[in-house]
Amino acid sequence: MKYPKIIGRRLVLASSSPYRQALLSKLGIPFETASPCINETANVGESAIQLSKRLAEEKAFALQVKFPQHLIIGSDQVAFLEAAQLGKPGNHACAVAQLRAASGKAVEFFTSVCVLDSTSGELLTDTDRTVVWFRPLSEKKIECYVSQERPFDCAGGFKSESLGIALFEKLETSDPNALVGLPLIKLVGLLEKFGLEIPCC
Fold first, then answer.
1. Which residues contact 103 (CB under 8 A, 6 or more apart)?
2. Catalytic residue selected from 76, 117, 126, 153
3. pTM above threshold 0.85
4. How many other CB atoms are there within 10 angstroms of residue 40's CB atom?
5. Parallel, antiparallel, or unpaired: how do β-strands 123-134 and 106-117 relate?
6. Which of 19, 75, 147, 159 is most buried (most C-beta within 10 Å)?
7. Catalytic annotation present for 76
């Protein structure tokens, strides 16, 4: 595989998420991963976009000292249903409750991505907005889905990259990767601004 040359720099993904790692691997460029340790509590009066941007940036900055000559990628996703934030359900009952609440409704996902040049401190950030319109879901269908896929570590209680797509009526998005956790289209644009061209051949 042909890799781009990053003079004096390597890429670091500030995440332990296997979903984000799998998405970044699609670009065919080498990278390291490290888990940032930050407080993800929302500030008073903070909007969904502000929260997702701040957390993405804080994740990148949390690794700046450990990786002083790198391009660090941070990303964070915030989901909202009727002004209420949806977190990762963590268990079967909470996943069922989230999908029951979303049945026949729209859930907004704000997924921010940033790239930090840890040497200069230069930071670039962008945010994707995706709206998921759920079909009316019966209790039987919800229980069956959650039992089969166990989406306990996914905000909203579903995995759009697999069987969860059957729960949707439609998607409003510019990048389906963003719903999984990393908006690759926006990331490629940010990396290009740092002089890193993604190889296509």
1. 134, 135, 136, 137, 142
2. 76
3. yes
4. 12
5. antiparallel
6. 75
7. yes
Residue 66 — φ and ψ, nearest 5°?
A: -70, -30
List pLDDT tens digits, range 108-128: 999 999 999 999 999 999 999
DSSP symbols for 28-83: ----EEE------PPPTT--HHHHHHHHHHHHHHTTTTTSTTEEEEEEEEEEEETT
List Cα–Cα distances, 76 to 69, 135, 167, in angstroms: 23, 26, 23
Domains located in the chain, CATH noted: 10-193 (3.90.950.10)
- The C-alpha angle 17, 34, 196, rounded to 5 degrees, equals 95
Residue 143's identity, in one-letter code, is E
pLDDT of residue 6: 44
Ordered DSSP codes for 97-156: HHHHHHTTSEEEEEEEEEEEETTT--EEEEEEEEEEEEPP--HHHHHHHHHHH--TTSTT
How large is the C-alpha radius of gyration of the chain? 17
The answer to whether residues 159 and 88 touch, using CB atoms and an 8 Å cutoff, is no
